[in-house]
Amino acid sequence: MIKVWLYNNLLHRLNNSQIKLLNNRYAHAIIASTMAIVPLSIVRGLVITASVICETAGFSHAATWFMQLQIGFLALAPLVMNIYIAVHWAVRNRLSQIYCIALSISTLMIFRRILDDNAQFFLDISIPMALASGIIGNVLQEIVSKNLLKVRQWKDNNNVTILSFFITLAVIALASSAIKLGAAVWLDHAMSFFSGLSLYFYPFDFLHGIGYVLLRSAPWFFGLHGYYLFMDIDVAFTVANRLNISDWHSGRGGLNILSPVFYDIWCNSGGTGNTLSLLICILMQKKSPQRRLLSISAPMALFNINEPLIFGFPIVLNPVMIIPFVLTPLVSYMVAYGATYLDIIPRNSEIVSWSTPGPIKVWLASGHSVSAVVLYLLLVAVGVAIYRPFVKNSLKQTNNENADLDLLTGEIKTVQPTDFEMVPNYSHVVEENSYLEAQRQIEKLQSAGQFILYFQPQVRLSDNKVVAVEVLIRHQSDSGKITPPVFLKYYERTGLMPEIDFWVVEHALDYVRENMAAAESMTLSVNISPQTLIDYRLLSVVHKVMANPLPAGWALEFEITESQKVQEPARVAEVMEKLRSLGIRIALDDFGSGYSTLHYLTRYPLDKIKLDRSMVLGLAKPDGFNFLQQVVKLCMVIQCEILIEGVETHEELEQVKMAGIGLCQGFLFHRPLPGNAVCLLLADQRKKEFPPSATEALV
């Protein structure tokens, strides 16, 4: 009964919490910044290893130089995280990277100055401060930007960006000054409280030692190294250990059980979390795709550098795998502490670098104790036993994780597991890699050609007259090759669809004004993604492009894609109403192909419904025509125009007419055409409608 509850409830809840974290923009920003310093951490570990090798070989000057170099890397890490969180925020939210970085660093300097009047150089900062200042500054700028757009319809978004930057910086400076001047005592008390709280984890006895294990391992859930977060504790702990060993050598006292070397040996074999055991588990899974990690992670693990494994498996943002990651060093700590307390193994009498390979480190630190080496190997085996059930069952879901990732929303879809083997293991690294790949593809598109517009006519079946044109985006390479809009998935993935939609709206309206003004009673139909509908700039852009009206008789129509999931439906309905109040028609595209079809009909204000080609293909089935008729009747209930897409044969056309559909779009009539071809088509249609002789007779 307990097993069933564990499998179907606890792990399901943990998995759901992981999904929420993966879709949280703040968590994404933190993870992006921690991933940015992974190369820095690896290089630092290698530099420390080089220092140990030089010290062992007798090159003390080189060893000192390497050690000072790693201190520089350590001091640089928070600043790199602060900058990268700004870069990540700018890219994800379509903001200026320069302004976001400047604001993030400025906020960091202000915060650093408030906390310490003597602070002159902002490299002397902590990671929590670096992350907090990066997020606070950029979130505040985003809020200011949205409110500026509400106050005034700006013609140039650059004005909003520049003004919001200075307003945000002023707000932060004023608020910080107010806190410093008006709440200095409270600030001092708060700093004292947090200092005292961190000292609670100082490992001076068994219970506090457990807290220290948690302090070092648990923050890795967010990709944060516990050593970086609470460096003051580790520095004091190291100094105390050196003094203790010195006193022991001089006969002035006994050795303490707890020391940095104790934790490095028993709780950090392979790196924090005793990840050497995790590597062995992965090695035991012969068909596991995660075995590709071994070529990178295994050599690093020999020197107790585990970032490639933590981010690659991952441990980060994985509520299931964080359990053995924390549990394994805890068990090792308690076993090793008990064995040391009972004198089964000797206390550590030598200071050995954390980057020294495990068995060698145990041998040296314990004064060449065989029993200590045997216990080390035993605890690695215990760690394997703890990790293995989590690894075995998590890896079974790896093949399915990409299929469950919605590239438009970034959400991960799942169903409730009914067995432990069904608990998914979603990797944020896969998600981040797909995001970076999308960015690379976009950069390649932008550097190898340009976007162009095509138009596909929509025909009224009663007289075969073109009454509307749907504008479509294409990419034309420098060599002249035209690419269909398969590239849009990259813009959807990176959240940049609003940029594409705004570009299409602006250029399509300009093209119609310049080249199609002679056509009358026409509709220009533009596709708008769900991302764009909830973009706070949409109404501002619409006001800007409609300042110069369309030619007489033309109407603007926005097509909302039904096959894509809409986020914030209440916000979408509100925006649609505002667009209709501006005279813009709303059409529901791809009806019958995606999400919540009936819900769309009843919730959103619609003027036109475009039936998906799947309805046409369904006509080949025995009940296909009857089904199409019922769908048409349903659409007529809400009094919308009905257009069907994808008609390619005369047989399909006849059935569509019999079903009562009045508008059609498909290859039987017209394929998507370049602008000049559509202009000729509309001009020819106008000539047929008003031949020259009729025009002369009227004159």
Mind sketching the topology for me?
Layout: H1 2-22, H2 25-36, H3 38-57, H4 60-92, H5 97-115, H6 127-151, H7 157-182, H8 184-199, H9 206-217, H10 226-229, H11 231-249, H12 260-266, H13 275-284, H14 294-302, H15 307-312, H16 322-341, H17 358-365, H18 370-395, H19 428-447, E1 449-460, E2 465-477, E3 482-483, H20 488-493, H21 497-515, E4 522-528, H22 530-533, H23 538-545, E5 554-561, H24 569-581, E6 585-591, H25 597-603, E7 608-611, H26 613-617, H27 624-637, E8 641-645, H28 650-658, E9 663-665, E10 673-674, H29 675-689, H30 692-698
Helix pairs in contact: 2-4, 3-4, 4-5, 4-6, 5-6, 5-7, 6-7, 9-16, 13-14, 13-18, 16-18, 17-18, 21-23
Transmembrane segments: 26-53, 65-86, 98-115, 121-140, 160-187, 293-316, 322-342, 362-387
InterPro entries: Cyclic-di-GMP_PDE-like, EAL_dom, EAL_sf, PTS_EIIC, PTS_EIIC_3
GO biological process, one term: phosphoenolpyruvate-dependent sugar phosphotransferase system
